[in-house]
Specification:
Strand order of the largest sheet: 3-2-1-4-6-5-7
Strand content: 5-15%
Distance between the termini: 70 Å
Radius of gyration: 28 Å
Helix content: 40-55%
Shape: elongated
Order of helices and strands: HEHEHEHEHEHEHHEHHHHHHH
Structural class: alpha/beta
Largest sheet: 7 strands, mixed
Number of strands: 7
């Protein structure tokens, strides 16, 4: 253990600690600990069941650092959870996590505090160190994995980041404690940043240095197993996004601004060409009128993303099937279905004539056919009107 000088009082000012999870990183651990001690002694370390000389390396620091030792390896996710819990128990408001494999530089710690200094204290903040993925030392598989993760993070939260996989982060402990976390391995880092974004925590990148020294670095990422776990997590998070969180964000945005202001700011004043906005309206109305009950939201958001249409517009118009309009939509669908199937229009819709399962099936088929036809008719007419309206407004501007 080398003698160090603590020189950044902002760790105490902002009630911030540094967390180091470590597992069999004996080549880089001591240098990292000494580097962090230059800035603060508010350090929590989890020895995640290391089988090398980690325990001996940490022994001289036992009176300086807060060390937690697992009897066996439990994974980075469990170590992080333990760090969050211990930081909360010790009364910290923020926790900076830094990997012990030598890729992160302790002299980047003030960068996180600089951003914390600028932040509005009323807005919770999560910072993720952004690595230069074009650096020649960065392995190709890490660069690909990061792009993959960035894409799904954007789908799940609407937030564009340059780096979502860096382990060099500043976490808001009080917000972390409000989350229900389920994962236990590397994928926990993704689960946390997605769920914090869903809670309206500000998430952004800050530039950091990175070094991948293959002669000293030991990585415990298992490409097949961990990539599979991450893919399963992203599948679940995307489903939650489409079914619940994205509609919730759009509805809250409409409530916050009011329909009139939302229409002006998000639809009328959108910089998209008229054909794109009209297409989004057509998509929303088609899905909303179609007989695909229970799948309207997930379908309209997915298709809007696939065809790169305005999700807000598409979702807004997909809600045409609101309770007051449902009887009229069903009635019109049934009557159009009758015409298409060569039947007479039954203005009374007498359900007493349905006496068997076959009659129900025939009636259902009539409704389904008519519903799709109505959806096509309404969406086409509305698309023409919308295109004319938006084109006229653009010409006037």
């Amino acid at each position: 253990m080398t003698k160090t000088t603590i020189k950044d009082d902002r760790f105490k000012t902002y009630n911030c600690c540094v967390f180091i999870p470590t597992y069999n990183n004996q080549k880089t651990l001591e240098a990292l600990v000494n580097g962090v001690l230059v800035y603060t002694d508010q350090i929590i370390i989890v020895n995640d069941g290391a089988t090398d000389d980690t325990a001996a390396i940490l022994a001289p620091y036992k009176d300086v650092l807060h060390i937690i030792t697992f009897p066996e390896n439990r994974g980075k996710g469990v170590a992080l959870r333990e760090g969050f819990k211990e930081a909360h128990r010790m009364g910290y408001d923020y926790m900076i996590t830094i990997d012990s494999d030598g890729q992160h530089f302790p002299n980047d710690l003030p960068v996180f505090l600089d951003e914390l200094e600028k932040q509005d204290t009323t807005i919770p903040l999560l910072l993720i160190g952004s690595r230069n993925m074009d650096d020649p030392s960065v392995p190709g598989k890490s660069s690909f994995g990061n792009k993959f993760s960035n894409f799904w993070y954007y789908v799940e939260t609407g937030i564009k980041l340059q780096d979502t996989q860096s382990g060099y982060r500043l976490y808001p402990i009080n917000e972390i404690n409000k989350l229900k976390l389920f994962t236990t391995k590397f994928e926990l880092e993704i689960e946390v940043i997605v769920k914090l974004a869903w809670r309206n925590v500000e998430v952004r990148n800050i530039p950091i240095q990175v070094l991948y020294d293959e002669t000293e670095r030991v990585t415990h990422f298992r490409p097949f197993r961990d990539f599979t776990r991450i893919s399963i997590l992203n599948t679940w998070l995307v489903m939650l996004t489409l079914i619940y969180y994205l509609p919730k964000r759009l509805i809250n945005n409409i409530k916050k601004k009011g329909i009139k202001k939302f229409w002006k700011e998000n639809i009328v004043k959108s910089n998209e060409p008229p054909i794109k906005k009209a297409s989004a309206i057509m998509l929303g109305l088609f899905i909303g009128i179609s007989p695909l009950w229970g799948f309207h939201t997930i379908l309209v958001i997915t298709l809007a993303a696939v065809f790169k249409l305005n999700k807000a517009i598409a979702f807004l118009f997909s809600n045409v099937s609101i309770p007051p309009l449902i009887p009229f939509i069903i009635y019109a669908s049934y009557q159009i279905g009758a015409v298409l199937m060569g039947k007479e229009i039954d203005a009374t819709l007498n359900i007493e004539e349905i006496k068997s399962g076959t009659d129900v099936f025939k009636s259902l088929g009539q409704y389904v056919i008519g519903s799709f036809a109505l959806a096509i008719i309404v969406s086409l007419i509305s698309g023409v009107i919308a295109y004319s309206y938006f084109s006229l407004r653009r010409t006037q501007k």
